[in-house]
């Protein structure tokens, strides 16, 4: 992957927060800082997973091999297999939480954290490629949702590959009436928003037989999107954006400094086929 210099990074470092920004920071919900490492037991499990040959883990329709998992070592560029496995974990957790929520009164294991998990749909990394290369009709994207009503979801999550040199996260947020783009290098988002609007309208015409009503909808870019400081970590940032969004988070509790820990945590999560939040 080519190395980029974030054009906004120096400006962000030099920019002094205004009074309004200071107030906004004060009012914003405070996140618990991430740990610097896993427990000794979990760190040992990660080391063991990295030594395991062949297929390391399977979940739903996804699987990850030893070569895929090695991409989560420092400076590795994440591939489709890692990102789609992680997306499957996100959607699986959402489906489990939805089922537990429906049985809440009879489920002693239902937790407050589960109650915050949104009803999400995840599109694989190949979705965006088909949409932008072939379009809705030629790409046969109507078939992708034959068994899913995306308009009933809280959020639709989409990893976006930009010409095989950069990963970002996109979301169709029905709760907030927003088309969202999260880019750890803050590049131009206009093509992402156009693609999301084109897809949403085409899908609504196909499933609901009418144009989508964009009244009240906005193209949303968070001013607090964490920024990477190298050319290798965009896939990790993208996975973490998607994971946070699936829990309804409005801000993110990680930065470039947390990426070494998050890479190790993702190896553990993939090996266990289970997400953790700390």
Largest sheet: 5 strands, mixed
Examine the coordinates and then state which fold CATH places here, giving the name of the CATH topology: Adenoviral Proteinase, Chain
Widest β-sheet, arrangement of strands: 3-4-5-6-7
CATH class: Alpha Beta
Strand content: 5-15%
Beta strands, count: 7
The poorly predicted ranges are 1-19, 21-27
Distance between the termini: 29 Å
Structural class: alpha/beta
What is the general shape? globular
Radius of gyration: 19 Å
Named at the architecture level, the CATH assignment is 3-Layer(aba) Sandwich
Tell me the helix content. 40-55%
Protein name: Ubiquitin-like protease family profile domain-containing protein
Domain Ubiquitin-like protease family profile: 62-245
Family: Belongs to the peptidase C48 family.
InterPro entries: Papain-like_cys_pep_sf, Peptidase_C48_C
Overview features:
single chain, 278 residues, alpha/beta, Adenoviral Proteinase, Chain, 5-stranded mixed β-sheet, two-stranded antiparallel sheet, 12% strand, globular, deSUMOylase activity
Describe the protein's topology.
Layout: H1 9-14, H2 19-27, H3 40-51, E1 55-59, E2 62-65, H4 66-69, H5 80-102, H6 112-116, E3 120-122, H7 125-138, E4 155-161, E5 167-173, E6 178-182, H8 190-208, E7 218-220, H9 234-246, H10 259-272
Parallel strand pairs: 3-4, 6-7
Antiparallel strand pairs: 1-2, 4-5, 5-6
Helix pairs in contact: 3-10, 5-9, 7-8
Structure description:
Helix content is 43%, strand content 12%. The protein is α/β, with parallel strands linked by helices and 278 residues long. It starts with 8 loop residues before the first helix and ends in a 6-residue tail after the last helix. The N terminus is likely disordered. It has one domain: 3-Layer(aba) Sandwich (Adenoviral Proteinase, Chain). α8 links the parallel β6 and β7. The strands form 2 sheets. The chain has a 5-stranded mixed sheet, with helices on both faces. A two-stranded antiparallel ribbon has the order 1-2.
């Amino acid at each position: 992957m080519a190395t980029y210099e974030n054009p906004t990074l120096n400006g962000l470092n030099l920019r002094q927060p205004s009074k309004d920004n200071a107030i906004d920071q004060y009012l914003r919900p405070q996140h618990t800082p991430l740990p610097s490492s896993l427990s000794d037991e979990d760190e040992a499990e990660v080391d063991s997973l990295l030594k395991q040959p062949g297929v390391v883990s399977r979940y739903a329709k996804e699987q990850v091999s030893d070569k895929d998992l090695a991409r989560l070592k420092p400076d590795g560029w994440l591939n489709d297999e890692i990102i789609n496995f992680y997306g499957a974990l996100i959607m699986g957790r959402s489906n489990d939480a939805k089922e537990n929520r429906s049985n809440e009164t009879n489920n002693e294991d239902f937790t407050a954290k589960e109650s915050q998990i949104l009803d999400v749909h995840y599109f694989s990394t190949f979705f965006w490629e088909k949409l932008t290369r072939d379009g809705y009709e030629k790409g046969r994207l109507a078939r992708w949702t034959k068994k899913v009503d995306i308009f009933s979801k809280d959020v639709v999550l989409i990893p976006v590959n930009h010409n095989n040199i950069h990963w970002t996260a996109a979301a169709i947020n029905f709760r907030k009436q927003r088309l969202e783009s999260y880019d750890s290098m803050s590049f131009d988002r206009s093509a992402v928003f156009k693609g999301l609007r084109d897809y949403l309208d085409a899908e609504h015409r196909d499933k609901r037989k009418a144009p989508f009503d964009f009244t009240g909808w906005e193209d949303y870019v968070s001013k607090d999107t964490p920024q990477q400081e190298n050319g290798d970590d965009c896939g990790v940032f993208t996975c973490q954006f998607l994971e946070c969004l699936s829990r309804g988070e409005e801000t993110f509790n990680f930065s470039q400094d947390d990426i070494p820990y998050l890479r190790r945590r993702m190896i553990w999560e993939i090996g266990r086929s289970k997400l953790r939040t700390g």
